[in-house]
Amino acid sequence: MAKRIDVKDLDIYYGDFKAVEGVSLTVEPRSVTAFIGPSGCGKSTVLRTLNRMHEVIPGGRVEGKVTLDDQDLYASSMDPVAVRRTVGMVFQRPNPFPTMSIRDNVAAGLRLNGVKNKKKLDEVVERSLKGANLWNEVKDRLDKPGAGLSGGQQQRLCIARAIAVEPQVLLMDEPCSALDPISTLAIEDLINDLKSQYTIVIVTHNMQQAARVSDQTAFFNLKATGQPGRLVEVADTQKIFSNPTQKATEDYISGRFG
Amino acid sequence: MSAVRTLDESAPPATTGVDDFGGKSTGRALTDQLARVVMWAAFVIALIPLVWILGTTVLKGGQMLLDASWWGNSQSGITARRVGGGAVHAIQGTLIQAFVTALISVPIGVLTAVYLVEYGRGRLAKTVSFMVDILTGIPSIVAALFIYAVWVVTFGFQRIGFAVCLALTMLMIPTVVRSTEEMLKLVPNELREASYALGVPKWKTIMKIVIPTSFSGIVTGVLLGLARVMGETAPLIILGPYTKVIATNLFDGLMATLPTMIYQEYSENLQPAVDRVWGAALTLILIIFLLNILGRFVGRFSKVRN
Ligand SMILES: Nc1ncnc2c1ncn2[C@@H]1O[C@H](COP(=O)(O)OP(=O)(O)O)[C@@H](O)[C@H]1O
Ligand SMILES: [Mg+2]
């Protein structure tokens, strides 16, 4: 089910401002790729181009190529809405729909896309919540508001919501940065489990986290202040953390800047 | 009441152990006290006219409302000199006109706000926004005269209830647009993005996520706009003259309303008529008050369901 992502010579703009330049990388199916780098170097921006969320921002546009298996995501015949069904996303701050119960939050993607069969929805809700390691905590209060959960639970609810629509790829933008250490570990375990089914790309500020969860790590950095961000180096996580090719990577992971 | 709560929350923390930090400077304590007094004074001053109006109206008009005939009869066949009769004709007229006004204004106003917040970019959006600003500033008498010019002078139609609704619509649309706009802007962008990321199209995101999230705020805004429009008098005097009898057809003949009833009875200058002025005024206040309660209730209800 999971798909391979290929990014080739990608330039990303906000209006006239070129935020990211010349990114090329490949993400293998059923693997976890971590994006690391200092703030403002364009990690979120690159991530959001992988499911065409970038263009939601006024003036947002890209040049270059992103393919999912062999489909060009930015081909003119490609419907961004369909892309987002295939490539799910979890955001930095947990954002459950405040008007919906836990059950409705998980079912939102299907219900809003017209699935009405209650039995099927209940199945999906249970499967997704189990998949997000949240089922046992919430199974007795599925009709309570999703916003009433703790931050870590809310984030797992958001993950359940994202996997309920059965995407091929899961993008996560600093999913743990608003969470406590225990919830963070719970999410990391979850990422490990999800890897068997999904292709995962995760942005993280936490180097240990990148080392713990990812198979491949991409280090982004600004060319210079005021210049666009770029991909400095991408390799197996092992290699990046033990023996990076670039000096900048080594400086960053050893904490000399950023 | 919220002013009181704000004051409580801004109260300084308990002073135990403050010695370690050298205590609170007397200058700051003094400023704090002064600000407190000024805020209380402003609060009380703002409250005086409100309490005064309410008190006077209840004292002078309360008696009328206790009489069952007030809620059961019209003024049909009652001269200014005589006591008796009721306000049913005016209450009905006000409610019918308000309902139809809302029926026209709410869809237009809400959709305009959705356009401005969710879709509007560039020239067209700026123009629309500017037009709404201008509409907001139009005095009600001007709206009334505009409709009069179109309805009566240009088309040669009669002065009927529906013409009043059109004028009131002109006054209500901008308030609905502005209040709905504020509510839609309060919906965090993250919710829209969360919905898009699930592969939900934009229009569905607006219908199923954005509007439900801000629903109670939109309803409150609509009801407040409606309350304001219900008390408008100029369009009624120009387009919907008073009548003493019950009339429910917006498209034929005259139709009484509470503001025109007040205006009419006031011009009689006789005690029974003056009593009816207070009664009608209190009734109008009561209806608007109930509208506000309804707004709260709808807000609460939608939150519970969620
Ligand atoms: N909505 C936006 N509009 C304009 N510029 C943006 C927007 N979001 C991010 N940027 C710019 O793009 C660059 C990369 O930002 P971002 O991708 O958020 O970095 P990171 O996630 O690595 O911290 C920054 O210079 C930032 O100022
Ligand atoms: Mg970021």
Protein architecture, described:
The complex is a heterodimer of chains A (258) and B (306). Chain A has a domain at 5-96 and 169-253: P-loop containing nucleotide triphosphate hydrolases (Rossmann fold, 3-Layer(aba) Sandwich). The mean pLDDT of chain A is 93. Chain A has ten helices and ten strands. Chain A has helices at 43-49, 80-86, 102-112, 118-131, 135-138, 151-164, 181-194, 207-213, 237-242, 247-253; strands at 5-14, 17-27, 32-36, 60-68, 71-72, 87-90, 169-173, 199-203, 216-222, 229-236. With 306 residues, chain B is mainly alpha-helical. Chain B has a domain at 88-300: MetI-like fold (Orthogonal Bundle). Helices cover 76% and strands 0% of the residues of chain B. The model of chain B is unreliable at 1-10 (pLDDT under 50). Chains A and B meet through α2, α3 and α6 of A and α8 and α9 of B. Magnesium ion is lined by residues 43-44, 173, 203 of chain A.
List keywords for this structure.
heterodimer, A: 258 residues, alpha/beta, Rossmann fold, 10-stranded mixed sheet, 10 helices, 10 strands, globular, B: 306 residues, mainly alpha, MetI-like fold, disordered N terminus, binds adenosine-5'-diphosphate, binds magnesium ion, translocase (chain A), ABC_transporter-like_ATP-bd (chain A)
